User: What shape does this take?
Amino acid sequence: MAPIRLTESFYHRDCLEVAPDLVGKLLMRRLPDGTILQERIAETEAYRGQEDLACHASKGRTPRTELLYRESGVIYVYLCYGMHWLMNVITGEPEQPQGVLLRAGVVHNGPAKLTKYLQVDKQFNGDSFLTCPELWIADDGFRPALRTDVRVGIDYAGAYWKNMPWRWIADEK
Assistant: This one.
């Protein structure tokens, strides 16, 4: 099946539904010279609302977190540790902050390696996977087996939130 761009209805669901369904999809990037890069999504993490102490929205609405309150499909890119761009997609209902971190591709096994390969930085922050001509997610029908695990790098959120099995990984077995 030829890759088809995901539509608003795909993202307009709870992040705990969208995150596992994104694993296996194709992250597509058109460079300025017309070259198309693609990477199959191998791992995602869900961040769900102000109550989730690992979610950026847990500290309330700020200029940085404003995009989490927007409509489904919005691209949320932020700088981590002052040097790595990480990319998320907003899901669910407007005003209900939640999103999914695109944690790894099949080849590029980390969120910063993935954005570096795709040449994604703050220029995409606030754009939309629904309409952006340079960055989108597509479905070609591939459905990998999945396993879950706890989210990574969020010790600050406390044991309860740190141990939520809200990471989905393509199972290579």
